[in-house]
């Protein structure tokens, strides 16, 4: 036992925090972090890591710049960083068991997230889930197209064909709504789409698509997007 411990500690010394952070960055960018054959997402699919998200990118998740310094996460509902990560890992990436606190992968992710968190006083970020699903005023189609490209296209690919989509699980938009009369009789198609975008896999609706809180996507952008999709 003692010999084993010495071996483990020696191993830790060899891979210093710098190596661990590099390994963590590689894990962050890889969909193989989750061993599920149904997963195509990496952490980087939904999170930028720069102070401001790059132009032309609307993500469901906040940038993770300064994430390790925030006092809490998920709008205050998570108070441990690893728990906040595991919400994503289990719900969106189909990780079967949570990442454990002592796993090398968790430590490496932590070193990486710490490296991109230079401001010790960084505040928590707001996250507001839209509770009641209501119709939204429609907007401008050109703006809606820009929203589609920034928010949806990476996963769903081109409208009408799905060309270039990240995974074939991501339905072709808006064509998939043709199935909604049967699947959701009496409910306007746009309302099903709003429900999906606002609640993702939560509230009893299945799947792995992330939910968009108010801070991630405004009702105005959602309305423009619906116009662009012809809904
Ligand atoms: C499919 C999209 C998606 C994937 C993949 C994903 N996340 Fe998230 N993540 C979200 C959303 C949506 C939120 C909630 C909004 C927010 O707080 O950023 C979130 C929240 C978080 C938060 C809390 C941020 C805060 O300040 O409240 C952390 C930490 C986090 N994710 C880390 C990760 C890590 C690490 C991975 C990879 C293991 C990952 N996420 C994968 C979508 C995703
Ligand atoms: C991180 C990848 C990802 C992003 C970003 C994303 N989706 Fe999805 N979406 C999926 C996946 C995967 C599915 C199928 C699994 C599921 O239902 O969650 C899906 C399902 C859907 C569905 C339900 C289709 C059905 O079968 O009824 C709708 C509607 C939808 N997405 C709309 C959107 C819109 C609009 C956007 C942009 C605001 C968007 N999605 C962004 C991955 C994504």
UniProtKB/TrEMBL annotation:
GO terms for molecular function: electron transfer activity; heme binding; metal ion binding. It holds the Pfam family Cytochrome_CBB3. Keywords: Heme, Iron, Metal-binding. InterPro entries: Cyt_c-like_dom, Cyt_c-like_dom_sf. Residues 19-117, 139-231 form the Cytochrome c domain. The keyword Iron applies. The keyword Heme applies. Gene3D superfamilies: Cytochrome c-like domain. Signal peptide: none annotated. This is Cytochrome C oxidase Cbb3. It comes from Corallococcus interemptor.
């Amino acid at each position: 036992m003692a010999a084993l411990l010495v071996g483990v500690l020696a191993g830790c010394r060899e891979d210093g925090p710098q190596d661990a952070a590099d390994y963590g960055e590689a894990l962050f960018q890889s969909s193989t972090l989750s061993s599920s054959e149904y997963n195509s997402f990496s952490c980087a699919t939904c999170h930028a890591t720069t102070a401001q998200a790059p132009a032309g990118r609307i993500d469901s998740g906040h940038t993770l710049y300064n994430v390790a310094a925030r006092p809490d996460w998920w709008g205050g509902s998570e108070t441990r960083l690893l728990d906040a990560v595991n919400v994503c890992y289990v719900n969106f990436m189909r990780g079967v068991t949570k990442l454990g606190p002592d796993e090398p992968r968790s430590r490496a992710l932590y070193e990486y997230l710490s490296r991109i968190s230079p401001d010790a006083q960084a505040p928590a970020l707001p996250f507001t889930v839209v509770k009641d699903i209501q119709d939204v005023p429609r907007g401008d189609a050109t703006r809606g197209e820009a929203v589609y490209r920034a928010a949806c296209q990476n996963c769903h690919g081109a409208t009408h064909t799905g060309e270039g989509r990240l995974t074939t699980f991501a339905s072709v938009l808006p064509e998939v709504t043709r199935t909604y009369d049967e699947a959701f009789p009496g409910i306007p198609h746009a309302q099903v789409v709003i429900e999906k975008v606002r609640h993702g896999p939560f509230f009893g609706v299945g799947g792995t698509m992330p939910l968009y809180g108010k801070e991630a996507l405004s009702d105005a952008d959602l309305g423009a997007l619906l116009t662009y999709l012809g809904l």
